[in-house]
């Protein structure tokens, strides 16, 4: 069965225009039940479902059904009066799938989810969040958190991570944000083409992923100076597909990250006090020794051989050096705190990485 509606918009006297005919609405093959008591239209699909399922779990549908005037008495009783929702067919079908699924079927997703499965679970997370299905949203977020670390993402499936990060931010789910960022870093190390990712991430305003991707792009960026000695003209290679504005951000970041390293070389991070170190000793001995060791660590050959734009790589090497420290007057419980201090610094820099790519203006003399 199908429903076909034609709308006519009238203008001034003697003038009438007709909008295009809407696509035919057809009964969904899986979720149009003869004994259903409510009809919903998403896109060109009609779903006839059961109110009691839509009403459970403190959803918005429950409020709509119980609040006087929340919906027209005849609305949703027939195909012609179906409740129109703005969701895609796939998204609303995902909602109905999870509403009608049996508990063993849902339980299985907590242990084994493929990239294809993740696409549907993300749809569930997005739409249950929209309609306030509290318990089902919690279940879907748990599945996503469990699945993301187990999937080896590729260029093709990279957008799934972007969607996971978006829903994590919407739900303030820091655990999911952390695993999504870790998976994104692994994707960047796998050698994918970065320019298309940068363009997509900027379009979708995923700034956390965008900063990490720009950072990875710095390693592929090659600057070749041309012209007579002293010329400011440079040619940039390894950045095909990026705009001049994006190239300007990369050039600005090279300077900014190098400047940050020089600043950090003279300003060690705060050393936390060990559990058994008294405050007076920590200030007079441990911090003093840490302040002396830090510049030496930053100037170690194994640190300086790493490209200056790879600030995180350099600090990771410093962390390894700090972890191997065994001598000195520093209290034994404060020595492990050196690693903690560097780890905290790395986390802070990673969190604020986007600041290094906020180029104030285009760079002169750039030839992409």
TrEMBL record:
Domain spans labelled BTB: 36-108
Residues covered by region (Disordered): 1-23
Residue ranges with Basic residues bias: 1-10
Family matches, as SUPFAM superfamilies: POZ domain
Gene3D superfamilies tied to this protein: Potassium Channel Kv1.1, Chain A
Listed name of the protein: BTB domain-containing protein
């Amino acid at each position: 069965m199908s429903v076909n509606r034609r709308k006519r918009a009238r203008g001034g006297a003697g003038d009438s225009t007709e909008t295009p005919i809407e696509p035919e609405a057809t009964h969904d093959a899986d979720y149009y039940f003869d004994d259903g008591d409510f009809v919903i239209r998403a896109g060109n699909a009609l779903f006839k479902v059961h109110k009691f399922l839509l009403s459970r779990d403190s959803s918005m549908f429950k409020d709509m059904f119980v609040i006087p005037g929340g919906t027209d008495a005849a609305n949703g009783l027939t195909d012609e009066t179906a409740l129109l929702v703005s969701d895609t067919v796939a998204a609303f079908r995902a909602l109905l799938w999870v509403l009608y699924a049996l508990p063993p079927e849902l339980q299985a997703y907590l242990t084994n989810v493929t990239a294809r499965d993740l696409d549907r679970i993300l749809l569930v997370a997005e739409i249950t969040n929209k309609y306030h299905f509290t318990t089902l949203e919690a279940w879907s977020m748990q599945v996503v958190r469990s699945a993301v670390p187990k999937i080896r993402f590729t260029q093709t499936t990279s957008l799934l991570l972007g969607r996971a990060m978006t829903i994590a931010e919407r739900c303030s789910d820091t655990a999911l944000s952390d695993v999504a960022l870790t998976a994104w870093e692994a994707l960047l190390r796998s050698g994918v083409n970065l320019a298309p990712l940068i363009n997509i991430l900027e379009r979708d305003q995923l700034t956390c992923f965008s900063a990490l991707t720009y950072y990875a792009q710095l390693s592929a960026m090659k600057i070749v100076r041309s012209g007579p000695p002293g010329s400011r003209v440079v040619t940039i290679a390894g950045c095909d597909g990026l705009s001049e504005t994006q190239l300007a951000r990369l050039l600005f970041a090279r300077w900014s990250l190098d400047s940050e390293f020089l600043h950090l070389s003279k300003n060690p991070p705060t050393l936390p006090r060990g559990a058994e170190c008294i405050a007076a000793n920590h200030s007079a001995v441990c911090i003093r020794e840490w302040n002396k060791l830090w510049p030496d660590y930053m100037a170690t050959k194994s640190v300086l051989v790493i490209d200056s734009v790879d600030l995180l790589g350099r600090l990771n090497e410093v962390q390894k050096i700090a972890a191997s420290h065994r001598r000195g007057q520093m209290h034994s419980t404060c020595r492990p705190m050196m690693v903690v201090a560097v780890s905290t610094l790395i986390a802070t820099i990673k969190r604020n990485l986007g600041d290094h790519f906020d180029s104030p203006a285009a760079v002169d003399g750039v030839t992409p």
